[in-house]
Amino acid sequence: MAKQERGTRSRQAILEAAAEVFDRRGFEAASTNEILARSGLTRGALYHHFPSKESIALALLDAHSGALLAPERSTKLQSIIDLSFAFAFRLQSDPVLRASVRLALEATFPLPGKTPYEQSSVATRALLEEAQQQGEVLPGLNLAEVTDVIVGAFTGMQVMSQVYSKREDLPERVTAMWRLMLPGMVTPGMIGNLRIVPPSAAETAADQARAEAFAAAEAAAAAEAAEAGTPAP
């Protein structure tokens, strides 16, 4: 157990160091030497977990899926809105997620499975389907089209926010996005029941605890798989 915990810590240290380097320099300009210097670990430790710079980047891209854990709300449209705020706040504070977002745009190597944008679309579409089943959205709404608009609009907002304010004004931009988009999506009378500002401190704390538990389980599983020499589930 102690060996597994050390493996989990060293793997996370490498990912956090790499995230800072990738976020600042981009994939092509990043070097494993700088990643090692930031992590404080040996080259042997790095290659024990990651055989190449590309494998580190792929592990960082996996962080994107962990950031798509939807908050539990009775109204599924509120879950989508609050997921966008949770993602926005993590972009402000989490270098791993920021690196994942940058790598999604800049990766010059093949990505196995779904891309981060496809992951976002899958998560959003699933919540929209639940919202449709609960009668929250307008009849006949094209959910594929709405999914693309939501993911595309949020992507554009976070890029603009990064350019203009280093993402400091991202929550305000997300509020504006929902204020303008919801009238074309929501059934009459529903808009008044939706909150388009960040959730309360209590809701945020509960959401964060759930997300951290999920992330810890994912990290432990990845470290255990690396020790065993098998792909993470």
UniProtKB/TrEMBL annotation:
Domain of life assignment: Bacteria
Organism whose genome encodes this protein: Streptomyces roseoviridis
Lineage: Bacteria, Bacillati, Actinomycetota, Actinomycetes, Kitasatosporales
Gene3D superfamilies for this protein: Tetracycline Repressor, domain 2
Protein name: ScbR family autoregulator-binding transcription factor
Record keywords, A-Z: DNA-binding, Transcription, Transcription regulation
InterPro entries: ArpA-like, CprB_TetR_C, DNA-bd_HTH_TetR-type_CS, Homeodomain-like_sf, HTH-type_TetR-like_transc_reg, HTH_TetR, Tet_transcr_reg_TetR-rel_C_sf
rRNA-binding listed as a keyword: no
DNA bind region: 31-50
Pfam families: TetR_C_45, TetR_N
Domain HTH tetR-type: residue ranges: 8-68
